[in-house]
Amino acid sequence: xxxxxxxxxxxxxxxxxxxxxxxxxxxxxxxxxxxxxxxxxxxxxxxxxxxxxxxxxxxxxxxxxxxxxxxxxxxxxxxxxxxxxxxxxxxxxxxxxxxxxxxxxxxxxxxxxxxxxxxxxxxxxxxxxxxxxxxxxxxxxxxxxxxxxxxxxxxxxxxxxxxxxxxxxxxxxxxxxxxxxxxxxxxxxxxxxxxxxxxxxxxxxxxxxxxxxxxxxxxxxxxxxxxxxxxxxxxxxxxxxxxxxxxxxxxxxxxxxxxxxxxxxxxxxxxx
Length: 272
Prior knowledge:
Helix content is 36%, strand content 23%. The longest helix has 19 residues, at 173-191. The model has no long low-confidence stretch (mean pLDDT 88). Helix 4 (114-127) packs across helix 5. Strand 1 (2-12) and strand 2 form a beta hairpin. It has helices at 45-51, 76-82, 99-109, 114-127, 143-156, 173-191, 208-211, 231-234, 238-243, 250-260, and strands spanning 2-12, 18-29, 34-38, 60-65, 68-69, 83-86, 161-165, 200-205, 216-221, 224-229. A 6-stranded mixed β-sheet has the order 6-7-8-3-9-10, with helices on both faces. With 272 residues, it is an alpha/beta fold.
């Protein structure tokens, strides 16, 4: 479990004042959950994501991952094995000259035996429909394919938690659809497994349609959590979401008018 206990974080500015990013955030994320976190720019969502695998350490409060506090330097390697991250731009994450080498890279750093690495790489290439690109230079792939390689490379290391920081923001519509399909497949795989084998996914996004895939939606504003519920419940707060600069799916935007006309909110359950 990820246990976030009253954390705060501020960035240094050029002047004397610090820029607050997180303020007394409390949150628990249970094993096997698919959690989406939405917020406009400067809401604190990316700062929170980077705190989850100790890229940033809270200046107050504490984050504990399966009993390991991120503030303890001795825990950082173990935490980063547990918490894999995929960033916005796959070009900033991919470091190897071929797709095969990229997927093997993290395993080599973990000291995994070569025979096991070969088996894992072959399995991952097949699972993510990348076998035909095995010897391709990653820079020749499309944006969606690169992001799929990035996700595959992280999952090859068998993390317990997968944090995706706006992974579709630099993709074209086709690439975005491909990646969302991949995340839906991971969620489906989770449903077929015992809890102990499930991957906990945390998706940072500004796109409401992406958040609808999740089991739970957290909305952040000015470094705090203002909503934490199922997406279908959160998106019913249309006016408040718009006041903080976030969009809602079109069917939820139409909901107040249709309810005023006498339609039941149960009508919207058929959409998702």
